[in-house]
Amino acid sequence: MGFKERLRGLRARKFLSKTQLAKDLGIARQAVMLYENGDSIPNIVILSEIADYFNVSTDYLLGRDSFSVFCDKCGGTNGLTLPDELTRDDREILANIVKAFCEQRTKEV
């Protein structure tokens, strides 16, 4: 899976329109369309901003990483990369474990 599919998937999971994502990132809606169609790729600054926005690594966005799980409560820095070989159910279970762990850690602080 490449950048265009990962960007489209992340946007869809957050129920964001292309217009809203573009507005949040401070770029043109046309740019988001071009990225998702595979007709253009973002420069390194925009790529980094997209990664920060979705709390994923740039490697994940570029398809160099497998499935990444990050916890918003931990600031997106404590993540787990899950292998592609896992089933969707397994990924969801592990993602819930990571999120529960992060939530417990933030309560303890």
Summarize the structure in words.
- With 109 residues, the protein is mainly alpha-helical.
- The chain folds into 2 domains: 1-55, Orthogonal Bundle (434 Repressor (Amino-terminal Domain)); 66-109.
- The chain has 6 helices and 2 strands, in the order H-H-H-H-H-E-E-H.
- Strands 1-2 form a two-stranded antiparallel ribbon.
- The longest helix is centred in the last third of the chain and has 21 residues, at 88-108.
- The model has no long low-confidence stretch (mean pLDDT 81).
Give structural attributes.
434 Repressor (Amino-terminal Domain), mainly alpha, 109 residues, 2 domains
CATH topology of the largest domain: 434 Repressor (Amino-terminal Domain)
Helix percentage: 55-70%
CATH architecture descriptor text of the largest domain: Orthogonal Bundle
Low-confidence stretches: none
Quickly count the domains: 2
| Fourth-tier CATH superfamily name of the largest domain | lambda repressor-like DNA-binding domains
Overall pLDDT confidence: 81
Rg (CA only): 15 Å
Biggest sheet statistics:
2 strands, antiparallel
Distance from N terminus to C terminus (CA atoms, Å) equals: 37 Å
Task: Name the strands of the widest sheet in spatial order.
Answer: 1-2
Number of strands: 2
Indicate the overall shape: globular
Helix and strand content put the structural class at mainly alpha
Count of runs of 4 or more consecutive helical residues: 6
- H/E element order: HHHHHEEH
- Measured by DSSP, the beta-strand proportion falls in 5-15%
CATH class of the largest domain: Mainly Alpha
